[in-house]
Amino acid sequence: MSPIVIKVGGALLEDQAAADNLLQNIQAIMHQRPVVLVHGGGPLVETLMASLGLTSSKIDGLRVTPDEHMPYICGALAGSANKTLCATALKAGITPVGLSLLDGNMVNCTAMHDKYGAVGTPVAQDANLLNSLLAQQFLPVISSIGSSAQGRLLNINADQAATVIAQLVNGELILLSNVKGVLDASKQLLTQLDATAIDKLVVDGVILDGMKVKTDAAMLAANSLGKPVTIASWSASLEDILQQHTGTRITPQPVKAGEKQ
C-alpha cells in the first residue's frame, strides 16, 4: 500500500502526552503501511528568537526569515525539534531516521519573493533515499529545512514540505495540528471541502492566515496526487482519521474529459 505522510505542527512538541500518543498510533499503523513524519517547529523557533532578542514576523501565514536567522532556525527545526520527535519515536518502539528536505537530494527548493527572506518553495526531486528507508521499515522524520541548488539554506512551510514529500512517494497526506479540522464561521467542523468551497470560505474571511496556507497545501496535494487530503487533530486516532470518522477531507478537482491527471 502507498505510504502515509503525516505532518505535525511544532506545538505538538509542547505536549509530550499527545506526542507519545501519536507515535504509539504510528507504531501500530506501521505494521500495515509505511509512514513518513514531516514536522514544523514554529513555537520552538519563536521561543528561541525571543531568547536571542530577535524579532520574528509573518506575511500571509509564512514566517519572514532573514538569512542571518537561518543558523538558529536550522538548529531549532533540524536539531531540537527533529531529535525530540526521533526520541519520542524510539520510546514508542519505532526506529526513526532524522532528515531534512535537502538530504538525499529529496527536494529542490527555490527562494520565494525577497520580502520573505530565506523562505523557499519546494519541488520533489529524488525519492531513492526515502523509498530505501521505507522498504527497511524505518520511520523517516523530516524537518522543513531545505536548500537551493546554490546551497542557500531555506525555511520551508511545513505544510508545503509535507505536500512535496507526499508527491515524492505518491503517499496519502494527513495534516495534523491542535485543531480538529477546518471550522466554519460557527466553529463547527466541516467534514469535506473542495476548491470552490475553500475559495468561498477565504472570501468570507473564515479561512485565514495559517489555515489558508494549510488548505492551499492540501488542495495542491489533492490535485497533484489525485486523492483526498485530510486535515485533522493529532489527538484523534489515526485509525479514525484513515476511516474518515474525523477531520476535514480536501477533495481534488474532478478531471475533465480529455485532461490528464
Automatic annotation (TrEMBL):
MF term (GO), any: acetylglutamate kinase activity
Pathway annotation: Amino-acid biosynthesis; L-arginine biosynthesis; N(2)-acetyl-L-ornithine from L-glutamate: step 2/4
Binding-site residues for substrate, renumbered to this chain: 41-42, 63, 155
Chain ranges of the Aspartate/glutamate/uridylate kinase domain: 4-233
One GO term of the biological process aspect: L-arginine biosynthetic process via ornithine
Chain segments annotated as transmembrane: none
Record key words, sorted: Amino-acid biosynthesis, Arginine biosynthesis, ATP-binding, Cytoplasm, Kinase, Nucleotide-binding, Transferase
Compartment list: Cytoplasm
Record site: Transition state stabilizer: 7, 214
PANTHER family: N-ACETYLGLUTAMATE SYNTHASE (PTHR23342), N-ACETYLGLUTAMATE SYNTHASE, MITOCHONDRIAL (PTHR23342:SF0)
UniProt family annotation: Belongs to the acetylglutamate kinase family. ArgB subfamily.
Known role: Catalyzes the ATP-dependent phosphorylation of N-acetyl-L-glutamate.
The protein's name in its UniProt record: Acetylglutamate kinase
Species this protein is from: Alteromonas pelagimontana
Gene symbol of the encoding locus: argB
